[in-house]
Amino acid sequence: MSTYLKYGCVHPRTLLADLAAAEQTESVRRYTDELAWRDFYADVLWHRPESAREYLRPELQALGHDSGPQAEELVRAWESGRTGFPIVDAGMRQLLGEGYVHNRVRMIVASFLVKDLHQEWTLGARWFMQHLVDGDLASNNHGWQWVAGTGTDASPYYRIFNPVAQGKKFDPDGAYVKRWVPELRDVEPRYVHEPWTAPGGIPDGYPEPVVDHAHERQVALDRYARVRAR
């Protein structure tokens, strides 16, 4: 419903009324929470309009970001879904193909750009707004700030999504990955989220991982620690 909410085709109160009348399951509660998050971010933007493009926690601008030809090449790999991390690549290809990605995948690919590739959240926020059919300035940009740890979350520095673990947890059979990454359709499900471990190796046409996640995770944590120590 996010696209319909963005363009005003349906009011959130309509959805809340329907949810209130439904059986109060965990799914209903979570849906209600997501609507609350949407209004919360709209309220943040109303009171802090500069937060659409500026850090809510400006001290974290001191983190620094990677630049240069190699960094630009990594960004292009992320944009095109060629990072070698299947869940990230599936999400980025779906974004290009459909203009929509599930919120869980948005968080995974955002974390990868900011904390594995060490890029500024504003770069990813702009890319999403260019391609999402439900691109809402408040939800999108503050969601990116949440992932980057520069927004409304009180202690976000340690939250770094492991793309392999996330893939295994939320796409255990690899169905989502195989839909968007055809190079991996013949890989056994147990290897699909880390194809470099498959007996036959990485299939032809699919890239090696562009970074070592464990190493880049530590780099990100070290950068946050230095900023927080100031």
TrEMBL record:
Q: Which InterPro entries match?
A: Crypto/Photolyase_FAD-like_sf, Cryptochr/Photolyase_FAD-bd, Cryptochrome/DNA_photolyase_1, DNA_photolyase_1_CS_C
E.C. code: 4.1.99.3
Q: Where does the record place the Cryptochrome/DNA photolyase FAD-binding domain?
A: 32-225
A Gene Ontology molecular function term of the record: FAD binding
Q: GO CC terms for this protein?
A: cytoplasm
**What keywords tag this UniProt record?**
Chromophore, FAD, Flavoprotein, Lyase
Question: Signal peptide location in the record?
Answer: none
Q: One short Pfam family name for this protein? A: FAD_binding_7
What is this protein identified as?
Deoxyribodipyrimidine photo-lyase
Question: What does the note accompanying the cofactor annotation read?
Answer: Binds 1 FAD per subunit.
Q: Which cofactor does it need?
A: FAD
**Leading EC class:** lyase
| Chain sites annotated for binding FAD | Y31, E34, L35, A36, W37, R38, D39, F40, Y41, D134, G135, D136
Q: Which domain of life is it from?
A: Bacteria
List the lineage, top down: Bacteria, Bacillati, Actinomycetota, Actinomycetes, Geodermatophilales
Species this chain originates from: Blastococcus saxobsidens (strain DD2)
Family statement drawn from the similarity comment of this UniProt entry? Belongs to the DNA photolyase family.
Q: Which GO terms describe its biological process?
A: circadian regulation of gene expression; entrainment of circadian clock by photoperiod; nucleobase-containing compound metabolic process; response to stress
Flavoprotein recorded as keyword: yes
| Entry's transmembrane regions | none
